[in-house]
Specification:
Layout: H1 2-28, E1 31-36, E2 42-47, E3 62-66, E4 72-74, E5 87-91, E6 97-98, E7 100-101, E8 115-118, E9 122-126, E10 129-140, H2 156-167
Parallel strand pairs: 1-3, 1-5, 2-4, 7-8
Antiparallel strand pairs: 2-10, 5-6, 8-10, 9-10
Length: about 180
Amino acid sequence: MRCFTQFSICLLLILLCMVGQTSASPGNSLDITYVIPDKYEGLLLIVFDMPGGVQYPKESTDIAVTFDHEGIARIGNPNLLWGTGKSVAKEEKSGVEIPLVGRKTNLPQPLPTRAVLRTYGTGIAIPGRRELFYDVFIVGDPKNFSDTTDPYLTYKKEVELLLSKYFGLPSPVEKPKDAK
């Protein structure tokens, strides 16, 4: 009887491991294509958890995040799906692939004439709403990219202007004058 109980427990553990493995597999590989307007130069913003924004199913293995002509992509999900696939940036009409990196130092030498630098995402707390999260991308001549480890700091004011213009948000880094 004891042997049967041990065998049953082992079999149950093996089955649980197999179920866990198959349910985790689809999300492990996710390819993301960032679709940028042709010849676009400047900042791009992905804003998450937006009403009416594009919803990506959790089972997705390949998604395209499309920026409008103003450089904004509105996503209905609270964040982008996570995976280990590849990420690329392409021009919308021409389909030309543009180097996409997280740091300027990751670009090939000699530098390409155009690249996309992805910064780290951040958030802003808004009363009466969940925190608003966004990612910032910079598109242009990489010679002009910041050498800092967090390029967002270099472009903070430009990002704040975009958030204010398109979403009516106050600056995420400055407190109101009456705040202490």
